[in-house]
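Fold this: S8 family serine peptidase
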Amino acid sequence: MAIASFCLVQAGSASAQSQYVPPAPTGGYVMANGQRTADYNAALASWRQDKQFSVDYTKGYLGLEYAYVLGLSGKGQTIGINDAGVVMSHPSFAGSGKIAGLRTPVPATYGNDGMVNPRRPWEIHGTHVAGTAAGDRLANGVMFGNAFGANILSATTNFAAGDFLWWRDQILDNVMVATAQENIPALANTGRVRIINNSWGSTSTQPYTLTPSQARGAFQQTLNGLYDPVLKNDVLVVFSAGNGGGVHASVDAVTPLNDLRLRSNWLSVTNYLVNGTAASSTSLCGQTATWCVSGPGSSVVSAAQTYLVDGTAIRAKYTRAMYPTIYAATTLAQLQTAAVNAWLGVLTDYIVRRDIAQTLGRPFDEEAERTKAAQQAVGISLAYGARFMTPDPDGYTSRLAQILTIPGNVTLLGRDFSTSVLTQANTLITAELQKYISFTGPGYAALTGTSMAAPNVSGFAALLMEYFPEYKTGLISDILVSSSRDLDTPGVDLRSGWGAPQMAVALRGPTALRDTREVTVASGTTDIWSNPITDARDRYAAEVLAGFPNDIGGLVKRGGGELILTAANSYSGPTRVEQGQLTVDGSLTRSAVTAVSGGIVAGNGSVASLSAGSGGIVSPGSTGALGRLTVAGTASLGSGSQFVADIGPAGTSDQLAARSIVLGGGNLTLRPVNYVPRYGDSYTLLTASNGITGSFGSATAFSAILYPELSYGAGRVTAAVGARPYASVVAATPVQTAYARLLDANRSAYASLRGTYDLLDLQDVGTIRGSLEAIAPRSEATRRAIGTTATDNIARFYRDRLTAMTPDGFAGGTVAMIGKPLEFAANAIAAPGRPQTVSDTPTSMVRENMLPDNVSAYLAGGYIDGSGAAMPGTVGGRDPFDGFYIAGGVEARVSDTGALGFGLSYSDIDGDQRFGQSAKGELIQGTLYGRLGGTLGPALDAQFGAGVYQSSTRRQGSFVGTPFDLRSRDNALALSSEVGASYMKGSGALRFGPRVAIRTSSIDFTPTGETGSGPALTYGRDRFLSVQGRAGLQIDATQGGFRPFASAYYVHDFEGRPGYFNAGFVGGTRAQARFLTARQDRDWGEISAGVAYRSGRATVSLAADSTVGRDDVRNQSYRAGLKLSF
């Protein structure tokens, strides 16, 4: 690619505005070569050393490396380029969607759709401006635009320069061909652009020192809402100040003086050199100072359609002899004067000749004269342009054509003359320039002027808009102008305005505000402003302040994200938080801070005054960290407001400290941070040197149980963590009610029971209820049911022994084994819980002549199966259990009608594990029993037993997410006795008859505490007592060795048991609560039946017995036997 000749100005490295290091983007800081690094300074250096970055001084002057290391490129932004048109085929705009054009209502012969006027293909101005603002960064490029990732929407203005026809069409024929001002609202209305760059304007001759009133008079415009679309679409309009050489900025840059609403959306840009002095050609800010900055605009390298003009050939044709004054000029002013005078001479000669001919009546060739004049216009313009070091094909076309269209001149010359000359001059100069211009293709050129400074600032703005995507233009503009480095006199002055924008400062937020600005931060994001912010007027020089004395800053925080202010801020306008969070970690020394519904004020800094309305939140400290927010004046927390304080271990919390605090009945919430609040913790939340009036209306509970208990003292408010009764939150179930009583009664023993309270105190109602139900001590109820079953089963066994102890059926000298007791026990003991082993060995065996003739011995065993009713209110149905028993003893016939026996028994019953709980019991008992009476007729029987019931329980599970494992073991005294009377009728072959009996049994449970981890219970002393009345029928028969037998009883229990057991917490107070057990059955039935068959010395028997109609404890036992006689 070709590059036009230019004089490079080496840009100095931008000095860092502070040592602030912004957080690195994902992957690290971006280096110029595209690599990532964690070294911030290395990334900055890589950009400063990049050849394209340093091709001129512009990027260093603005400090753009501070944006590029964060990955900013203007991506997502579209800049409107309202200029002479862009050569869109230039590689700088080759990316997909990079550039587009705006269609404007001009004749087809003019430039449109953002492209150059086809009659002026050498036009590079718009291309250069577009490249400066947003040209792509190419691997083989010479430069790149400041916002190289932004897109461009180009609109063609169709400037007058270099185009004779423009003056004919626009001025003489009143055809719209120039749409410079009209393009601004048109671009804004597309809704696509955030910035519109305008590197054009009318040169002013007014001094930059005009007063505000003088400037309004000099630059008065009637806008009639022309630029309302700029405000509606929130667009930033950037204007070059003009190239008037020290005069006031041009009329278009001054536009906001005619509509002050536009100030926040308008920028005026002057051209300053790398050394901080004004370029000699630049216009100065004047009364645009409050929206004026000084950008880099000298020898700026950017994209261009490059070409060569053969100045030598032009000068050879349009010679010094033809235009001596033009060639004699040594300054631009002399050159311009010479060209104008030469043209005026041509026109004067025409008028003189025409008038003489008319006066003398001579023929006058009007067409020839017009052609001659057109030829002279072309010659003067080309000779003028050839005087420059780089010849200018535009020459002085625009000024010469303007003279032809001045109304007075049109009157003198005639409208037809002006029209004809302009038309012919266009044809002639087009043909001439084709001879002298050779296009060398797309390249780069260095240009100077405020036209170059403006797009540098536009690109700067696009980078800011990418970094702060939610900010409106007014705030972006404040950030941009207030970031500036002072030039000329201190403060905002009439020469350089705010000064030179600095990206390192701008990325840290504004340093001054001209108005109350809306700050929107998206939810889930955080913006940090670390610059001290003042009122803009505090920065104004006296001559600027005189025109804008009310430029006072303020903030309205919106959006769900967080804005953090870290510096000492002195702006005096209001600070209003409407959404999201404002964190003041610095200070707001003059601004009144207000939080309204949806807004949060937080921080560790200080504010002048603070108020929170309904829905507003005050939360000292930073997010997730404890801190103190100080109010120099009064803090007012109104009705409906919220005060939210983070808390840590006791005594550490957020705090609001003020001179005075007024509480209007709002809500207080304590928020634990990396800490679980404990009952009894205390915190000081508010302090006020001049006292606190009013109170909070409510306090948010930590949970269903814990809540802040507030105390109001002299100049302070403290909160202690109190506890509500568990009885107020549990459901009215037996288990929850019992636990609630224990928890409420043991609060004074909190230190010993923290493991339980700390887990449960912080839960909601549903969790509390579910957790208490889950630890119901249902294994304790199962343990009692197993004990009942074991004692009842052994009593039943001996009852059956007594029935069989008839004098004529007594087999002395034998040992009987009934039901494989040794094998059964061995199997059960060796492998508890496994299916029982079935053996092919005999089930009963009798050894005769082993004992005296009046004594016999036996060994028996059997299987027990049963279930107990679950604790009332618990789920899952009944609690099953099973096991075995072994009994052995001796029996003796003491008379013809009497017999005695003594037996020892062992019962082992295990409950199934259900819901993580299980129980088991072992009954070891000795029993003395006897019978008096014959085989038929009346008989009396009795049994008396005593032993120990050894029981254990285990509860396992999760208590509020924490595993627990609790065990208990008890040795209880078990007593049993029964006295019965029967009367049997029939014969030796068949006996039957009634039997009645009274039976008592008791188990004396001792106080037992659980051990292990979790909410352990201690069970109180309890006596299980049963006094039964029994009435039934017995029957047996003998026929040919076949002997069926059966019995049935009705049982009534006279003793009403309480239906609960008492338990307390291990390590707690002496308080106990009643845990309900299943409803006691008072009446039920028991049946037993079996069959025996004797053949020779062997007797085989099968028997079973069961409760009937009993729900509290159901049980069955099964026996099988084989008896052999020797």
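The two ends are 127 Å apart (CA to CA). The chain has three domains: 11-305+447-482, 307-440, 774-1124.
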